Amino acid sequence: MKIAIVGCGSRHKMFRDSVVEDYSDKHEIVALCDSNGHRLRLAAEAASQPGTNGVATYLAGDFDRLIAEQKPDTVVVATPDFLHSDYIIRAFEAGCDVICEKPLTIDLTRLKMILDAQARTGRKVMVTFNYRYSPARTQIKELIMSGAIGTVTAVDFRWHLDRVHGADYFRRWHRQKENSGGLLVHKSTHHFDLLNWWLGSVPVDVFASGRRAFYRPEMAVELGLGGRGTRCADCAVASSCDFELNMDGDENLRSLYREAEDEDGYYRDRCVFDADIGIEDTMQAHIRYASGVTANYTLTSYSPWEGLEIKFQGTKGDITHRHVEVHGVFGGERAHAGGDAVTTELHLAGEHPRMLDVPHGEGHHGGADPVMLGYIFDPEGMEPDRFGRASDHVAGGWSILTGIAANMSIETGSAVNIPTMLRARGIKL
Ligand SMILES: NC(=O)c1ccc[n+]([C@@H]2O[C@H](COP(=O)([O-])OP(=O)(O)OC[C@H]3O[C@@H](n4cnc5c(N)ncnc54)[C@H](O)[C@@H]3O)[C@@H](O)[C@H]2O)c1
């Protein structure tokens, strides 16, 4: 497969290094594209194989020339979220398939454009829902599929982002809804996709509340950060702020973002307490699925720890799954949790609760990324996927609809019926 990657920021490395280091006998990166020449050069240096002429690079304005000259089979899209649809559609029209980072896109207008282009061209887009591939999450799918707790009736799902990871969404492009759809789309697309996949159903009604309760100027004052600047690099109180992002002190951040700033003014370390942030940090939703299952969902982004807690109620018992990824943030440093930080308890009616052995995987996102990359780049070398983990435009679409409906519900104060919302926009999934 001839692969072109668009968007050479932090996430593209996973795809780039995987092809270069693990799958170069099967695939080749033929081109890289970014709006920032500095990041483009760094990516090209890292992707170039010894003894070759290197990888062709194109600035964003030359994407069509990239397609014409390099004729990729597949385009990997790893740009900020609001740009996904444009590159997906242009790749489709040029006869390419697409591997797209989550979320597929951020709003109904762009979703409809992607779906129309897919129908018109017949091309494929795979949305890389790496969380589905983490062994612990796959085990939950297997338990539910096996009927271990009978029919699932209700779910309680809480996701906690800590004060380093969670804060990061308030520093840069994610912090405006027009770029990311807010965390209910940008982040929760993973969580709502897991729910859709685990439950084998789709969301119908959503009622949500959300607000920015923590990352606010008032909180900075409360924390004694009254004289704060607009970004960490020139902030007078940075050294006493637990939320400081010291780009000069981190080789990766310095080379990838700090040294690239002059070209596009992309500041990676803007103050998380700025007044003009447009996304929520505290969100709750109640969701009713087509299967009748109901779910309560909570996402916070300033938690003292990071991880998830989920309980599935079923007609025969319940499953409680907990994963502590980071057990605390101390002075801006994250303390990662140890090996037994993932637990799954099965409690059947009339029996004592049982702690199950939870499979662990090596690699990022709880061992999810290497498994997913295997299925993307070497599907023949993997076991047939009986869990249906690969996801296309349909799964990608459903995964953002809960968040889009939740955003609408927050705005209007009313519940949103997704079929009605889709009909009004002429969207069929
Ligand atoms: N699945 C996951 O776990 C996961 C994790 C991180 C990020 N992501 C996703 O990956 C994508 C990229 O995130 P990131 O953290 O790497 O962001 P980033 O800001 O580090 O990188 C984005 C890159 O896109 C480039 N870009 C901006 N405008 C462009 C344009 N018009 N054309 C081409 N390139 C352009 C930027 O210069 C930058 O190099 C996002 O969609 C994000 O949601 C997914």
UniProtKB/TrEMBL annotation:
- Domain of life, per the record? Bacteria
InterPro entries linked to this entry: Gfo/Idh/MocA-like_OxRdtase_C, Gfo/Idh/MocA-like_OxRdtase_N, Gfo/Idh/MocA_Oxidoreductases, NAD(P)-bd_dom_sf
Taking every annotated instance into account, which residue ranges of this chain make up the domain Gfo/Idh/MocA-like oxidoreductase N-terminal?
1-129
Q: Name one Pfam family in it.
A: GFO_IDH_MocA_C
Q: Which residues form the Gfo/Idh/MocA-like oxidoreductase C-terminal domain?
A: 141-337
Protein's organism:
Pannonibacter phragmitetus
Q: What is this protein called?
A: Myo-inositol 2-dehydrogenase
Which Gene Ontology terms cover its molecular function?
A: nucleotide binding
